[in-house]
Task: inverse folding
């Protein structure tokens, strides 16, 4: 359904009563991790921004701004991003890794992984809080530069950087380029040589450690597109050192995403430090970049380790491996994205239709259709990602009913929240909030079915402002070369 305009008033019909809807926990349909809540209005700790709260009428507010005000002002769907939460988490993760590294006589640099969600405002927030910025395309680099970020605070990733992208990186004076292939190595060396500069580079290696995550999110096993195998790295390093236009400053390894504990990092560190020691015996490497991938809670069943605990464990694992080999611990770099921005985001939708569906003789699921879907959050369709949801415009005394929040797209896989207990009286016109959508929702959004992408609205201390405007049908038609607005366009 189309979003309501600013100030429009909608009066929902009487709330339905489904006399055959099962409101008790449904063991045959509910996943094992999902427990029926005592209160379907309660906000699970750790899943929502710290500022999220309900007023006496049950209206959710984020950053001091009521969800109903956000709907009236900006329409739905709308990505809401708590600026204070982003900044606080950036400061917290930077302190965690710097403190852990300092205890072992090393320095840590934290890069915000722009692929999680990037805009000029986000780039400014994280750099103002002391972070550097990790980009992986020319487009992300352009956003960073448009935000005024100095090249010395930018690292450039990517498994197939074009000549144009590498030229842009060199022109910007990026701090490091992460080499991902032999072709790229030679390509970058030639470009840097023409400019008469020496470009610092890292070599991305695959440690062979498989993170405890979805197959598509695990990035350090051997059979995939990123980086070099460990047994190739010494030869690649030797070639880099032969080229006067490149300076080898370290290794890079990323084992995956949405990782809750430190075991994978420990094992990966053991393998990568062995290579680091071998290469440092020829010429010291000052940097070891262990990537990111630190997980967040999407549902009340998720329980990631505190970031301070993870930082201490990862740094200690590197230090221990260095001690065994009698070498100094290098300066460390990390690239969190999701951990910083994910929990700061909440997406607001308006409920369009509600449909109880009898799945079997003794099992019923409530389908709650909203005015967005896989075009603004494709993560369930891509990875089977789980999310939570709550009514945001009122409180309800109805019993919780097993529900599935679905979108408006022509796909049966158009699922936003696969399984959740919502009040059984959820009805058209209700405002629904889905937390932990700050990462990889806007970034992965599309115009599927020609549905314009939502705006991003930043909230902080009771104020709201658009940081990425809503896409319009006119925007979509403007790219269609077959549309002629007047004779002059022919």
Result:
């Amino acid at each position: 359904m189309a979003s309501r305009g600013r100030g429009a008033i909608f009066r929902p019909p009487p709330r339905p009563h489904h006399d055959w809807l099962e409101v008790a926990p449904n063991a045959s349909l509910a996943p094992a991790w999902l427990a029926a809540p005592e209160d379907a209005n309660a906000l699970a700790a750790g899943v929502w921004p710290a500022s999220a709260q309900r007023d006496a009428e049950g209206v959710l507010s984020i950053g001091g701004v009521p969800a109903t005000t956000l709907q009236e002002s900006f329409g739905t769907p709308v990505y809401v991003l708590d600026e204070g939460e982003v900044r606080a988490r950036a400061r917290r993760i930077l302190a965690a890794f710097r403190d852990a590294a300092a205890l072992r006589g090393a320095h840590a640099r934290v890069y915000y992984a722009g692929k999680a969600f990037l805009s000029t405002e986000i780039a400014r927030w994280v750099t103002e809080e002391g972070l550097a910025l990790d980009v992986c395309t020319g487009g992300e680099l352009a956003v960073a530069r448009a935000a005024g970020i100095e090249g010395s605070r930018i690292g450039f990733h990517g498994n197939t950087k074009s000549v144009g992208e590498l030229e842009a990186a060199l022109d910007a004076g990026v701090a490091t380029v992460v080499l991902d292939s032999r072709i790229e190595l030679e390509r970058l060396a030639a470009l840097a040589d023409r400019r008469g500069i020496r470009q610092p580079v890292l070599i991305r290696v695959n440690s062979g450690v498989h993170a405890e995550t979805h197959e598509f999110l695990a990035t350090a096993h051997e059979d995939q597109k990123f980086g070099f195998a460990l047994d190739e790295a010494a030869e690649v390093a030797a070639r880099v050192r032969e080229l006067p236009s490149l300076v080898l400053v370290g290794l890079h390894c990323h084992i995956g995403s949405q990782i809750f504990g430190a075991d994978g990092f420990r094992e990966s560190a053991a393998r990568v430090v062995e290579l680091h020691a071998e290469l440092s015996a020829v010429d010291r490497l000052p940097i070891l970049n262990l990537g990111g991938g630190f997980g967040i809670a999407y549902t009340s069943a998720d329980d990631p380790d505190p970031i301070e605990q993870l930082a201490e464990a990862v740094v200690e694992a590197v230090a221990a491996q260095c001690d065994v080999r009698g070498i100094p611990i290098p300066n460390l770099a990390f690239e969190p994205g999701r951990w910083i921005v994910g929990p700061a985001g909440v997406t607001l939708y308006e409920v369009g239709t509600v449909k109880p569906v009898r799945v079997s003789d003794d099992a019923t699921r409530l389908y709650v259709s909203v005015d967005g879907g896989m075009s603004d959050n494709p993560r369930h369709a891509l990875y089977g990602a789980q999310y939570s949801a709550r009514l945001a415009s009122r409180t309800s005394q109805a019993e919780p009913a097993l529900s599935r929040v679905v979108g408006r797209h022509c796909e049966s896989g158009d699922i936003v929240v696969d399984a959740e207990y919502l009040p059984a009286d959820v009805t058209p016109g209700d405002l629904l909030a889905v937390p932990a959508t700050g990462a990889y929702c806007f970034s992965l959004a599309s115009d599927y079915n020609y549905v314009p992408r939502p705006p991003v609205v930043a909230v902080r201390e009771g104020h709201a402002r658009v940081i990425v405007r809503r896409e319009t049908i006119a925007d979509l038609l403007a790219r269609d070369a077959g549309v002629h607005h007047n004779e002059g366009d022919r």
Summary: The two ends are 34 Å apart (CA to CA). The first strand starts at residue 53 and ends at 54. The first helix runs from residue 67 to 74.
